[in-house]
């Protein structure tokens, strides 16, 4: 009697934020899925239900060729009800979303605030919607002992929904213990521990305790976030945030274009959107129109004028989405709308300097995928002090500088005045450092650091 071959283990990834081909939610999912395949797993991804409608070209995205996608979630941005820095919640909640922490007055005030939201965005409604999709996804997935479940973008509020979902599954009947990994990305507090941060820790720990029959592993994508979680009593492991390692074509700017200063990603408030106009005004004549530098960035299709000085707006004429619009006479290159993965990564390949105008208080413990994308290309970076980005630049200094750290945006023009003297040496340092980034920040290594077993190597050993 012959033994049947073992079933290929699977990993179910879930992220309600995946609804566009642009941005880092889908990029993260695709990198983790690629790592899963390298480790001998078959990946599946649960996304927001709107993904296929919003992105008709999804089928042609090379990142997703071997990834089974199920668009299910009709709720997203669960961190909007977090007790961390990205959410407005004031008190701890139970697994149904009801306020239970703080004083009576605070609970009443929180309940009123909840009711003032539109019905679909109220905490209890969002929690129930997320929980329902998780329940249906697990029923359909039918996890086996070697399968794993990964929540790509987790937090204190998602854990309440997770606990609610698992309790619902257990009420239905026998549920075998599952192994679930939850990834935390967003800071718990800024500079000092607050009452809300302490409540964050209690909320996480009580949610995990409610489903302790299952193996729940919590991970933080930066060391500083891991330390913040420990400060509020949450046990998590630090893991590397993955980035894409491709054979990037050596792309050089035309001699007359100047060094390209590239701001990657669509501008958002926490990424310095409101600083761009003043900075452009301060460098327009001396650095851009002179031909020393070219400023390259993405702009949305609408409401972009507030970010660009009037004198430079003619250089931002509309083109088809994803097409570059270089205007060397004023030192501007503009891309409009969301980019495909190929267009985005091709654009990054042309960077001479990666500039980050991020708000340090929002990135004290938060990873920047864009920074890693610059570093893996060997591109020098200019970053604000007092945040995770500056930590990465300083960490590389023993083997050679890989960029510049500024205390205030007002210092950037002065830094640019000295860039040309050191750019060649710093770029050489960056290219050496890129080898470390490629090895450590791969999707495969991220999963290994999470403790996920390498079934591919196990299969090779068994076969041998």
Structural commentary:
The structure is a single chain. The protein has 14 helices and 14 strands. Helix content is 38%, strand content 15%. With 464 residues, the chain is an alpha/beta fold. The strands form two sheets. A seven-stranded parallel sheet has the order 3-2-1-4-5-6-7, with helices on both faces. Strands 10-11-9-8-12-13-14 form a seven-stranded mixed sheet. The protein folds into two domains: 10-238, 3-Layer(aba) Sandwich (Rossmann fold), CATH 3.40.50; 259-441, Rossmann fold (3-Layer(aba) Sandwich). The protein has helices spanning 24-38, 51-54, 104-116, 123-141, 156-172, 195-210, 223-231, 276-288, 341-348, 369-376, 388-396, 412-440, 443-449, 455-463; strands spanning 10-14, 42-48, 68-73, 148-154, 179-184, 215-220, 237-238, 259-263, 293-299, 324-327, 332-336, 353-355, 381-384, 403-406.
Spatial gap, N to C terminus: 22 Å
By CATH, the topology of the largest domain is Rossmann fold
Q: Give the domain tally.
A: 2
What's the helix count?
14
Q: List SSEs in N-to-C order.
A: EHEHEHHEHEHEHEEHEEEHEHEHEHHH
Topology, number of strands: 14
Shape: globular
Q: Which architecture of the largest domain per CATH?
A: 3-Layer(aba) Sandwich
The CATH first-level class of the largest domain comes to Alpha Beta
- Mean pLDDT, as a whole number? 90
Find the structural class using helix and strand composition.
alpha/beta
Radius of gyration: 23 Å
Task: Write down the oligomeric state.
Answer: single chain
Q: Which parts are unreliable, with pLDDT below 50 for 5 consecutive residues or more?
A: 1-5, 460-464
Helix content: 25-40%
